[in-house]
Amino acid sequence: MFNDNFLVTACLDQIFDEHRNPTHACILHSDQRFQYTNRIYIQRLDEVGVTVSHSRKANCYDNACCENFFSHLKSESLELNIPKNEKDLLNAIDDFILFYNTNRPQRKLKGMTPLEFREAYQAMTLRFLNE
């Protein structure tokens, strides 16, 4: 399917009409293609209280962490066990996100899982603030 304004705004409507919890802060990061910088898109995100974040022009490193995660999702989950339907796909994604954050050590995080790293960072920050 062609990635146009209609597709992008339809996805936003589906996500934020069904799942948006106004008590949670949300930042939506994208590149600077026309679909993500146009007035309609920015206005729709503003209506649901989402902060817009864009990559800097010609800087692939801004998206590196997201690209890395999706690469692992595809190669470690979806390509190994191809979902048969939408429900299986959504379950596989949920399962992988849980696994990735709680059970999958990351070399760049000194061998900790993302959850362990966040907890260690929070503990270190609290110690620093209490000194």
Question: What secondary-structure arrangement, pairings included, does this model have?
Answer:
Layout (H helix, E strand, L loop, with lengths): L4 H15 L6 E5 L3 H4 L1 H9 L2 E5 L9 H15 L7 H17 L11 H17 L1
Parallel strand pairs: 1-2
What does this structure look like?
It is a single chain. The chain is mainly alpha-helical and 131 residues long. It has 2 domains: 1-54, no CATH class; 59-131, no CATH class. Helix content is 59%, strand content 8%. The protein has 6 helices and 2 strands. It has a two-stranded parallel ribbon with strand order 1-2. Helix 1 (5-19) runs parallel beside helix 3. The termini are far apart. The mean pLDDT is 83.
Q: Number of domains in the coordinates?
A: 2
Number of DSSP helices? 6
Distance between the termini: 55 Å
Helix content: 55-70%
Strand percentage lies at 5-15%
Biggest β-sheet, characterized? 2 strands, parallel
Number of strands: 2
Q: What order do the strands of the largest sheet run in, or round the barrel if closed?
A: 1-2
**Kindly state the mean pLDDT as a whole number?**
83
Gyration radius, rounded: 18 Å
Order of helices and strands: HEHHEHHH
Poorly predicted segments: none
